[in-house]
């Protein structure tokens, strides 16, 4: 059995007070204890009583089964979904060990199904056709809309028919570049219905990044809208797409169809640049198509979507998720981790341009027949009370967001929260980065009125769904800890040599064995998949995160151990920002590190050296930042440019980032040994220039 299982069994003795001690006692208890790891917050009895997993014992029983009999555990769950044809004799097959041959993960192979059918048709057949699938809330107050499951299906079918009509076939890729309109999940589901592979590109990415993604998957069509409002700003998305399509054509991928939704609240069609023959207004054509569309039945292992994410080196990686395992995993993690009940109204603030929006705005909730709130706007517009206004308006019961938003709202004061009732809320969720205990407490005490458990969900684009997260009502929580693994997940902590360490420890977070939602490859680059994730610690999937496990078996994520930084829950590769900076004609060299940032978690700090003879100026600083905005997107713009006459390098020419990190975070007494530097003087120079 797994080491983890032994941990949990041995710790079962400790939190046995769950359900006996109220959370109020626990808060007092928490204050009395010095360290974070002794700070326990117990679920209230009332919550636990109604929870799907009401106790640690129940969790442990289910967890044990999922580890000792994964095939039985997952196939039982999968049987609740619709399969045109059942999977073959093997529920799963895997090789996660590079020493034993190519990495391969398959779940429900041979099973024939369709995720759109399971999310929509299946729920309608079960009598939920009139249930609201999506409540949509626009940027401005008073702009809203909704779709029932039946009307959502009709809209999806019309778009599926259109896509088929323009020649999109099973396996073809479609790029979606849309803001949070209902048309975004509609477009994803329409692709899934006909077996097309969607590649959603977050609408904050630049034309260049969009072009790269269009070229990489040789998109058959692009779906976008003319403009979007974000707070007081209007962003002309279609102009960005136009530039991207010119770029991608230069690389040999010319897209014949650009379906454009007219987002009237942001911009009229008359003001939109138009390319006859290529551009089509969504509203002019899609509603003319039939409202039913046959499903394209696909194999469980057929690809569902591509989603690009940043790595520590090189170009973004196209993470590939397939249909069957992803379907079962997102549905199941959604259900248990949020203690989902059919009466819930669920709101996740993430954008569908990121994995959170794929798994927990679109697929996970809709597969459960849930009612989902989709919000187009900015959470502090028109004022920082907007989220709670939305919670009251739709009677949101489950609210899932990121620590960066919690911290930014926390700074605005409690008054914006307490003026709203929020009494509908019962479960809160957090994702994207570790949530610091003080933000956790504010979220718990102020937003949730000390009543709602917080699911701090650790997972990744690659994992498809939640990996480590507290099941609400089951566990006493520790603010800042993602607690325990989901069913079927065996997290292991390894040392530098890749040896598993047990008990209280810290090291690199890996996962042993596969799970249904795991990504199957990197698009077009299986070798990079193996090298990045499976070679560092043979036998395991390596997450790239550091983690410690305390004496009670709780997991504490400590951040990335590679050159990936996490800004407001968005992953950014330092190498990508560096390569954008050095593309500036006056920049000779760049080194980017992450620094602590009060709201964003991490900020981007860039050291740059300039081409011989070029003076550093405010103008140049701005133009360097603009280059990054144009090449990647505004969210990747450096917070700080630090002009460097030289960078600290070893004699072999390797930049010593360790030193740069210390300089960036002003930990000048912790610079460590600088004697191995080719020129130790650069360090003093850099420190002297810190405030330029
Ligand atoms: C990285 C994955 C998964 C959806 C959002 C980001 C960090 C994510 C947590 C958490 C601590 C977290 C990790 C991870 N991360 N959630 N609850 N606690 N760290 O997806 O862009 O693939 O980023 O985000 O560092 O590796 P992503």
Tell me briefly what this model is.
This protein has 692 residues and is α/β, with parallel strands linked by helices. Residues 576-654 form the AMP-binding enzyme C-terminal domain.
> What ligands does this structure carry?
5'-O-[(S)-butoxy(hydroxy)phosphoryl]adenosine
Oligomer category = single chain
Beta strand count: 31
Q: Which structural class should the secondary elements be placed in? A: alpha/beta
Cα radius of gyration in angstroms: 25 Å
Distance between the termini: 57 Å
Largest sheet: 8 strands, mixed
Q: Overall 3D geometry?
A: globular
Q: Can you describe what's shown?
A:
It contains 22 helices and 31 strands. It is an alpha/beta fold and 692 residues long. Strands 12-11-8-6-7-14-15-24 form an 8-stranded mixed β-sheet, sandwiched between helices. A 7-stranded mixed β-sheet has the order 5-4-17-16-18-19-20, sandwiched between helices. α17 links the parallel β19 (427-431) and β20. The longest helix has 17 residues, at 149-165. It starts with a helix and ends with a helix. Mean pLDDT is 93; it is low at 11-34. The chain binds 5'-O-[(S)-butoxy(hydroxy)phosphoryl]adenosine. 5'-O-[(S)-butoxy(hydroxy)phosphoryl]adenosine (WT7) binds next to α13, β20, β25 and β26.
Set out the fold topology.
Layout: H1 3-11, H2 23-32, H3 45-50, H4 56-68, H5 70-78, E1 92-95, E2 104-107, E3 112-113, H6 115-128, E4 132-137, E5 144-148, H7 149-165, E6 173-177, H8 183-193, E7 197-200, H9 207-217, E8 221-225, E9 228-230, E10 233-235, H10 237-250, E11 257-261, E12 279-281, H11 282-285, E13 298-299, E14 303-309, E15 317-322, H12 324-337, E16 345-348, H13 355-367, E17 371-375, H14 386-394, E18 398-401, H15 403-411, H16 415-418, E19 427-431, H17 437-447, E20 454-457, E21 490-494, E22 500-501, E23 505-512, E24 521-522, H18 526-534, E25 541-549, E26 555-560, E27 564-567, E28 570-573, H19 574-582, E29 587-597, E30 601-610, H20 618-631, E31 640-643, H21 657-664, H22 681-688
Parallel strand pairs: 4-17, 6-7, 6-8, 7-14, 8-11, 11-12, 16-17, 16-18, 18-19, 19-20, 30-31
Antiparallel strand pairs: 1-2, 3-13, 4-5, 9-10, 14-15, 15-24, 21-22, 21-23, 23-25, 25-26, 27-28, 29-30
Helix pairs in contact: 4-5, 6-7, 7-8, 9-10, 12-13, 15-17
The structure holds 5'-O-[(S)-butoxy(hydroxy)phosphoryl]adenosine.
Protein name: acetate--CoA ligase
Family: Belongs to the ATP-dependent AMP-binding enzyme family.
Domain Acetyl-coenzyme A synthetase N-terminal: 59-119
């Amino acid at each position: 059995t797994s080491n983890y299982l032994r941990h949990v069994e041995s710790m079962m003795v400790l939190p046995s007070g769950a359900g006996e001690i109220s959370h109020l006692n626990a808060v007092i208890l928490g204050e009395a204890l010095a360290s974070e790891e002794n700070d326990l917050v117990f679920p209230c009895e009332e919550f636990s009583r109604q929870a799907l997993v009401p106790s640690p014992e129940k969790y442990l029983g289910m967890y044990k089964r999922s580890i000792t009999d994964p095939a039985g555990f997952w196939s039982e769950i999968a049987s609740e979904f619709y399969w045109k044809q059942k999977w073959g004799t093997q529920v799963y097959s895997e090789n996660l060990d590079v020493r034993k041959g190519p990495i391969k993960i398959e779940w429900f192979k041979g099973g024939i199904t369709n995720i759109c059918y399971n999310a929509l048709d299946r729920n309608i057949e079960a009598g939920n056709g009139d249930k609201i699938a999506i409540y949509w809330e626009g940027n401005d107050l008073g702009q809203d809309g909704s779709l029932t499951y039946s009307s959502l299906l009709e809209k999806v079918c019309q778009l599926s028919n259109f896509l088929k009509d323009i020649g999109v076939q099973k396996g073809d890729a479609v790029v979606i570049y849309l803001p949070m309109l209902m048309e975004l999940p509609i477009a994803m589901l329409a692709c899934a219905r006909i077996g097309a592979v969607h590649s959603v590109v977050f609408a904050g990415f630049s034309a260049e990044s969009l072009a790269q993604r269009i070229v990489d998957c040789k998109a058959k069509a692009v779906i976008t809208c003319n403009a979007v409002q974000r707070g007081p700003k209007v962003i002309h998305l279609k102009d960005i797409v136009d530039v991207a399509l010119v770029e991608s054509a230069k690389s040999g991928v010319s897209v014949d169809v650009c379906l454009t939704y007219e987002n009237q609240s942001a911009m009229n069609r008359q003001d939109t640049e138009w390319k006859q023959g290529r551009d089509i207004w969504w509203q002019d054509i899609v509603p003319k198509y039939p409202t039913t569309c046959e499903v394209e039945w696909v194999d469980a292992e057929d690809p569902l979507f591509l989603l690009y994410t940043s790595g520590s080196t090189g170009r973004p990686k196209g993470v590939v998720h397939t249909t069957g395992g992803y379907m079962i995993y997102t549905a199941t993690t959604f259900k248990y981790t949020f203690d989902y009940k059919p009466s819930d109204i669920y709101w996740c603030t993430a954008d569908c341009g990121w994995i959170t929006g794929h798994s927990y705005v679109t697929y996970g909730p809709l597969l459960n027949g849930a009612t989902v709130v989709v919000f187009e706007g900015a959470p502090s517009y028109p004022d920082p009370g907007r989220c709670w206004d939305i919670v009251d308006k739709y009677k949101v019961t489950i609210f899932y967001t990121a620590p960066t938003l919690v911290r930014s709202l926390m700074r605005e004061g409690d008054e914006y929260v307490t003026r709203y009732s929020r009494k509908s809320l019962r479960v809160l969720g957090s994702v994207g980065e570790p949530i610091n205990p003080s933000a956790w407490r504010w979220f718990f005490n102020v937003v949730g009125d000390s009543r709602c458990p917080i699911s701090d969900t650790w997972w990744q684009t690659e994992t498809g769904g939640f990996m480590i997260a507290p099941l609400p009502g089951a566990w006493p929580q520790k603010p800042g800890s993602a607690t325990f693994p989901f069913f079927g997940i065996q997290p292991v902590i390894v040392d530098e040599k890749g040896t598993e360490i047990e008990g209280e420890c810290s090291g690199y977070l890996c996962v042993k064995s596969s799970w249904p939602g795991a990504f199957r490859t990197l698009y077009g680059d299986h070798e990079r998949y193996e090298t990045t994730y499976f070679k560092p610690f043979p036998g395991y999937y390596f997450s790239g995160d550091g983690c410690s496990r305390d004496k009670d078996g709780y997991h504490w994520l400590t951040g990335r151990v590679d050159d990936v930084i996490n800004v407001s829950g968005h992953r950014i590769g330092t190498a990508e920002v560096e390569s954008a900076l050095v593309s500036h004609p006056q920049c000779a060299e760049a080194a980017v590190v992450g620094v602590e940032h009060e709201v964003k978690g991490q900020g981007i700090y860039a050291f740059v050296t300039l081409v011989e003879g070029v003076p550093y100026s405010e103008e140049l600083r701005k133009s360097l930042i603009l280059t990054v905005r144009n090449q990647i997107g505004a969210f990747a713009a450096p917070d700080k440019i630090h002009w460097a006459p030289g960078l600290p390098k070893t004699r072999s020419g390797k930049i010593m980032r360790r030193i740069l990190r210390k300089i960036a975070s002003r930990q000048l007494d912790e610079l460590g040994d600088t004697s191995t530097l080719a020129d130790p003087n650069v360090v003093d120079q850099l420190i002297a220039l810190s405030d330029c």
